[in-house]
Design a protein that fits this description.
heterodimer; A: 114 residues; 7-stranded mixed beta sheet; 4-stranded antiparallel beta sheet; B: mainly beta; globular
Chain lengths: 114, 113
């Protein structure tokens, strides 16, 4: 998985509780991404980062926030989890961000919100 | 209408068959085209990468891009049970944008003995 780890790998939580997912990379890549994957929707971008403390929204960012204080770590926070946020979350990394460079994915975090 | 359309399957074929997986897209700015393979409960892994139109071959896999028709294909020759997975197409344009990719929803493939 290209030097990418995600934690936790599985989590069950209750509606209204805050949840933080962590992505850690050992590749020193500049770009990091958070996706969610749901049946019928494929992979949808939540937020991405193009450097330390530099982040931007993706297509499904409502209800999520992110932070990146170090090159290697990218955190995804659900401030108040809802059942609609039950999903599999993938982190991805990318080096140059342009041209033929592409994204490499972590193993995923399976989140269930009851 | 989604920017990238992909038949979800499932597609079931016998071992040794030639498999054809396809995506259509609507954004003419897309220039880079990728295929990812995703095994059950795993992250997607990059399989093939093509720039602009044409063919690219890697072992049993061939990626084909027809920009005039906005249509891309992945062919798998001599399919094996280990090819059973979901195949995702992805694409992006040339200019910046943080290297963001647009994905198809994936086609589930099962290769049977």
């Amino acid at each position: 998985d290209a030097g990418i780890t995600q934690s936790p790998r599985h989590k069950v939580t209750e509606t209204g509780t805050p949840v933080t997912l962590r992505c850690h990379q050992t590749e020193n890549h500049r770009y990091m991404y958070w996706y969610r994957q749901d049946p019928g929707h494929g992979l949808r971008l939540i937020h991405y980062s193009y450097g330390v403390k530099d982040t931007d929204k993706g297509e499904v960012s409502d209800g999520y926030s992110v932070s990146r204080s170090k090159t290697e770590d990218f955190l995804l926070t659900l401030e108040s989890a809802t059942s609609s946020q039950t999903s599999v979350y993938f982190c991805a990394i990318s080096d140059a961000g342009v041209g033929t460079d592409t994204q490499y994915f972590g193993p995923g975090t399976r989140l269930t919100v009851l | 209408q989604k920017e990238v359309e992909q038949d979800p399957g499932p597609l079931s074929v016998p071992e040794g068959a030639i498999v054809s997986l396809n995506c259509t897209y609507s954004n003419s700015a897309f220039q880079y085209f990728m295929w990812y393979r995703q095994y059950s409960r795993k992250g997607p892994e990059l399989l093939m990468y093509t720039y602009s139109s044409g063919n690219k071959e890697d072992g049993r896999f061939t990626a084909q891009v027809d920009k005039s028709s906005k249509y891309i294909s992945l062919f798998i020759r001599d399919s094996q049970p280990s090819d059973s997975a979901t195949y995702l197409c992805a694409m992006k344009g040339v200019t910046g944008g943080g290297n963001k990719l647009t994905f198809g929803t994936g086609t589930q493939l099962k290769v049977e003995l």
